């Protein structure tokens, strides 16, 4: 805690100016994107943008948790407090990225709800920086939004590189779904409920939090549909595999040699060399080489080579040799 206090005291945004800091952050993220595009032209623009997004998500999740949730008073019981320099640093870095990504989404015509999400995030961060309040809860909302983002980007990278059939890909998919649901729908719902009930937060932050929650619901709906489709198909493949294995045992994979045992209910199969055993209920199958045993109830099949045994009830194209 002492280290964070010293770092908070060392930062001076009054001297630098918040607008200048935001511009520097934007140029930093944009420069990283340009460097990636120039040094690896074989990859698409979306690939490089997602690399920038991954770096931002890891950095901002760490900063928003440490500076916004760990270092500060509990954001649910003490909202609308004054921003400290660590919160301002987090918001400045985050705003620079969202300015870059918002422009990228507009330029490449990304989906409408992603643009709305970025716009609402920029409004909330801008309001917090201008008014100098609510940095704690804005940072907490950023943490909940960004903590699942690295897994989403990892999924894209693995799909692009042909690693969709790996165990890591499946674990990452499941981790993303669970993390998104817990952070946005679980903790996020409780946070929104507590925040709206509190008398202190300003109207603009209330509207922003509700808007971001609605966008999260839309994203969650898409993810839930994906999860249901993915795991339903997975379980259906398991069922089909079990049925196929069972069909192999029924059709053409009956026991070939049985000694001192009993074989019953063989359908469309073949049983050969039954020694001191009993074969009953063979339908459309073939039984050969029965020694000291009993064969009965063979329908549309063939029985031959019964020695010191008994054969009865054979119908339709059978042969019995003593």
- The strand count comes to 9
Order of helices and strands: HHHHHHHHHHEEEEEEEEE
Rg for CA atoms: 34 Å
Structural class: alpha/beta
The N- and C-terminal alpha carbons lie at a distance of: 96 Å
Structure explained in plain terms:
- Residues 42-232 form the TLC domain.
- It is a multi-pass membrane protein.
- This is TLC domain-containing protein.
- The protein has 322 residues and is an alpha/beta fold.
- It folds into 2 domains: 2-243, no CATH class; 258-312, no CATH class.
- The chain is 64% helix and 8% strand.
- It contains 10 helices and 9 strands.
- A 4-stranded parallel sheet has the order 2-5-7-9, with no helix packed on it.
- Helix 9 (167-197) packs antiparallel against helix 10 (203-250).
- The model is unreliable at 254-261 and 305-322 (pLDDT under 50).
Record keyword descriptors for this entry.
9 strands, 2 domains, alpha/beta, four-stranded parallel β-sheet, three-stranded parallel β-sheet, 322 residues, globular
